[in-house]
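Final paragraph of the annual report: two paired records, presented back to back.
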Amino acid sequence: MISSGEVVEFHQACLAREDWPENRVATDGLHSVWEWIAANHRFNSLLWAEEDLARRRDVPDSEIARNKRAIDSFNQARNDAVERIDEEILVSVGNVLRLAGARQHSETAGMMIDRLSIMSLKIKAMAIQAERADASSEHLENCRTKLNRLLEQRADLASCVDALLKDMAAGSAYFKVYRQFKMYNDPTLNPYLYANKV
């Protein structure tokens, strides 16, 4: 079984690499859930970079359209990886007896791990802002306050991940994988795409 501490450490190690997210991180020899945790974090990192680029005002609209299409693609891949994380966690928990009165958790473990990934990206970005040499002291102090809040939020979320996994192993909690239905990406479900099919 994984722990939130291992996940946070993995996220931080990836972000510290100079070749991240362009190059994947090897997860050989680790439980297969790590392959999907790595994929999710990579797609979140690529998505983050594209979101920054999509806010540019000094490039042609065609560049922004390219960014928006990349965002759609990375977002779909990110959600697919979340579902695979959930599948791997459910397999690793095994056929644990679900106790009578076990509570259903509204958010899956994979969704929470996805949020830990996003939190690590926010923390990295805010830490950079909190140390900018060209920024005012007011900006730096404001960013340090936000950074501390983000660190607290990640710690709280991490403890919730561990509590859910512990309760699942004990049979007192469970979650369901419903599957995401991203209708706008599906040419058979998006009215504009199927109506204008040539």
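The closing record of the year follows.
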Amino acid sequence: MRELVPWWVRIAGKLVLSRVPVSYDTWRGLGVFRHGEMHHPAYALSTFQSHFTRARIPVGAPFVALEIGPGDSLASAVIAAACGATRVHLVDTGSFATADLGTYRELCAYLRQAGLQPPDLESTHDTATLLQRCRAVYATRGVESLREIPAGSVDFIWSNAVLEHVRRAAFGDLVRETRRVARRGSLSSHQVDLQDHLGGALNNLRIGSRWWEAEWMARSGFYTNRLRMSDMVRAFEGAGFAIEALACERWEVLPTSRRAFAPEFARYEVADLLVKSFTVSLQAA
């Protein structure tokens, strides 16, 4: 059914729904708005490990971790603690993480089956205690929260399908702050989805920034900053990161006609527009 609904109908529908006075927890339960799939133990562990292995931290070595955009779950705090983290920073732009402790106990059981030793959460009755036992901090003021982390204190930074959702005007500040907190020589790992989040094409490029960046549009559940891979790479390098590895998935042909794009996207090379998603490893130079 998702593929049968036109992109413009999805925009209209989400604009309307986002203004209905219903809590985010209710929308999440209905499956209308959701920030990630980290509430599934297998997915959470495989996603964390896919980034953590790129950091090349020796097995058993203590480390400090930072996740940008944990979304609906504090799972990364539990998994990082099970992998030896002495401190875990989870930074988001709002308090979206579920407080259902059963979800985290289920994750702990899965981790033990996988040979890891997560913190004991059986007697935990609230997320504050969970975070304390995982030696974690959950901060929800975006870039402002990053500024509270000491410089050069983080060994491993990662995000998964998050950077494309950072507000365009805040993207540079966020990248510079991640470089500030990164220990020199440490590695970061980011997976970025450049599809339009309206059906897997580039229909978001049809709309000019005057409308797309408006507050009422950006808070409606489908916002992406529309930065392309080349823009993000320049921001990473400008902040003091060196590109260690870069892998991208491309469309064979543009999924949306270039003639339909807003004029501001005419400057991009077709090769740049064809990048569907990419994964990048960054070294703090």
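The chain has a mean pLDDT of 90. This concludes the annual technical report; the extension proposal builds directly on these records.
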